[in-house]
What we know:
Mean pLDDT of chain A: 82
Oligomer: heterodimer
CATH architecture of the domain at 75-282 in chain A: Orthogonal Bundle
Mean pLDDT of chain B: 84
Strand content of chain B: under 5%
Structural class of chain B: mainly alpha
CATH superfamily of the domain at 75-282 in chain A: MetI-like
Low-confidence stretches of chain B: 1-20
Radius of gyration of chain A: 25 Å
Distance between the termini of chain B: 38 Å
Number of helices of chain B: 14
Number of helices of chain A: 14
CATH topology of the domain at 75-282 in chain A: MetI-like fold
Amino acid sequence: MSAAAPAVAAPNRRAGAGGTARRAAEAALFLGLGLYFAVPMIAVLLYSLATRWTAEVLPEAYTLTWWQSTLADPEILAAFQTTLVLATLTAAVDVALVVPAAYWARVRNPRIRPLVETSAAIPFALPYLVIGFALLQFSGIVAPGLQGTFPLVVLGHCAIAFPFVYWAVDGSMAAAGIERLSEAGETCGAPPWQIIRRIVFPNITPGIVSGSLLAFATSFGEFALTQMVGRGIYTIPIWSASAIRSYSGESGDFNRLAVVTMISFFVLFVLSAIVVYFNRGQAARLLPGAATVDKREQP
Amino acid sequence: MGATASAGSTPIVRESRPTRPSRSSGWIAAWLPAIPLLALVALGLVGPAIVLVAQTFVDAGGFTVAQWTRVLGQAVNQEAIVTSVALGLCSATISLIIGAPVAALVSRMLAGGRAFWLGLLNVAANFGGIGLAFAYLATLGSVGMLTLIIQSLLPSFVPPRSSSVIALLLAYEYTNIPLFVLLTIPAFGVLRDEWWEAAQTASATRVQFWRRVGIPVLTPFLASGWLLIFTWAIGIYGIAYGLAGQSGGTGARIITLQIGSAIQSDVLNGTARAGVLSVVLMAIATVSLLSYRALLRRALRWF
Lengths: 299, 303
């Protein structure tokens, strides 16, 4: 009886005259979606390769000049360097802070967990612009000397990016069953640092990789917070913002911006691809906080 | 029997207590590995948030609500709040209308097609800020690609002004629809094939199945996705900053742009305006987050 049911259900599902119309509608939806994703990207790519493009549907001619001049521009190169250093530091600091806390919450002190999870909800819900302004006001009271400095920008980026690392690392620890592995290590007489280095880290590599890449990507594209707290810190989003604002209609301005946008897009694309790969086809952002509520419901 | 056993075990627990290190060092051992992270949170998030809220209620003379009455009384700020909320509502609703069917279809795909679309959606969802603003200008700006294509067919076509609310909405959707799809795809896994089979056994039609089973089960998931998009859309700054670029302050008035310009150009009144508007955004985000959690709790019954 139960074996027969799917056999009946399967043809029924696709039967009827509605089948072809439904297929056509689906195909149209996905074609539209594909175009919708692709067209802006193609436009940016063509802008980065166009000599002049003001009247025709396609550029009049193509050139690599903009790519060459952009990649040789010391200002843009410096901005790339700053952005990469900032993003790398953010990812590294967040991993270094999150892994011990998440580990300890699992093996020793469960009271750490609700604290960290509530903290992770702050950058999840609050606009980064508001966090940036709050940090600006706070630093004005606590440490005016830090205002506009690189360390303050790093602090801000770490604060907004840490939830991504926490969710990824904590998920990995749950999947690896880190409590039991750690217990086994203790039974064998391994000291804590050895347990962390030789048991915890190797078993949560997927979480650390995807968490740190998400933190890197967050920092790499972050504009609002950097603009608020980092007067004079010149990252790629800040450079792009001033380029888009100072646009005078002169040829070249937008083309260089197109090159920078393509490069940033490519970086984000590669990061997303790696994260998706490490999550084995799962989307990187599944209803965040879902696991949290789930666990609290069943103590 | 049970009572004796538990009575017998209690002294053993008590006995082991004195062998532990003193109370304070026990506390340190229990919390030490988490302290750096909690310090980051305190210095980077909680402390700043408290200062921000406190500053809007304090002036030289002590506690006051004068800043609030003044800022909320200004027409510019009222307009900004209304526009931002309307923009968030529209953005989330469009994401829901387009995103829900896409999520339903992608969730039923075979592994290969699924991975392809998930990857594509992921890239689009992560593309934002100034880069997206520029991509919008390159597509639908005054000499954007799509503008030129449409104009070659329909010469009278004029694209929406890049700093207008319509342009913001169009640009926001580029990331919001994919985000909505990614957020809600797992929900469609909740609808089990057996339920559809059971409905068929009871000779229910497809419409009846969706009305009585599908939609009621999915509603909390879709609603929580909608709420997140609404919350995030209100807080978007980079895209709006890039698109407002050449308008010189005549474009759409939204809360985030008002905060940014208050700090950069309004020397006298700027901090108070930015502070009150920031706390308004904070309040909206907090209410949304709490509702999101409540909704999620309902939704997760099915897991």
